UniProtKB/TrEMBL annotation:
Main location: nucleus
Top-rank taxon: Eukaryota
Protein name: Transposase IS30-like HTH domain-containing protein
Coiled-coil region(s): none
The organism's taxonomic lineage, starting at the top: Eukaryota, Metazoa, Ecdysozoa, Nematoda, Chromadorea
Subcellular location: Nucleus
One matching Pfam family: HTH_29
Listed GO CC annotations: nucleus
Length: 110
C-alpha cells in the first residue's frame, strides 16, 4: 500500500511528465477527482508535504493507555472503568471511549 505522501509525489511526477489526470488515475487505481485535487493543491502551495494539523494536540499517550487498560481488563474484567481511569490519571470518559471504541468491549451487568 502506498502512503498518502508517496502517492502525492507520484501524482505530481506523472503530471510533470505530461500524463493526463485520467491516465494518472488509471495507473494509480484512484479517482480522477483525487488526482486533480492533488495537482491543484500542488500548484497553489508549491510542495507535496503534509500541512500542519489543526486542533489541540493529545495530552497523553493513547497507545500506552490502551495497552494498560487492555492488560488490566484481562487481569480482572470486573474492574470499574472509573477506578482504572483514576489510577491512570485520565478522565473516565476517555477511559470509557478507549474500552468501547478501541478495545471493542461492552459493559456487562452481573
Amino acid at each position: 500500500m502506498i502512503t498518502p505522501s508517496a502517492k502525492r509525489s507520484i501524482i505530481i511526477e506523472l503530471h510533470k511528465q505530461g500524463y493526463s489526470n485520467s491516465k494518472i488515475a488509471r495507473l494509480l487505481k484512484t479517482l480522477r477527482q483525487v488526482v486533480s485535487r492533488q495537482i491543484k493543491r500542488f500548484k497553489k502551495v508549491g510542495s507535496t508535504s503534509d500541512r500542519p494539523r489543526s486542533g489541540r494536540p493529545k495530552t497523553f499517550n493513547v497507545t500506552r493507555a490502551k495497552k494498560l487498560i487492555r492488560m488490566r481488563t484481562k487481569r480482572n474484567f470486573k474492574r470499574l472503568i472509573q477506578k482504572m481511569a483514576q489510577n491512570l490519571d485520565i478522565s473516565h470518559t476517555t477511559a470509557r471511549s478507549i474500552v468501547r471504541k478501541d478495545l471493542k468491549l461492552k459493559p456487562h451487568k452481573f
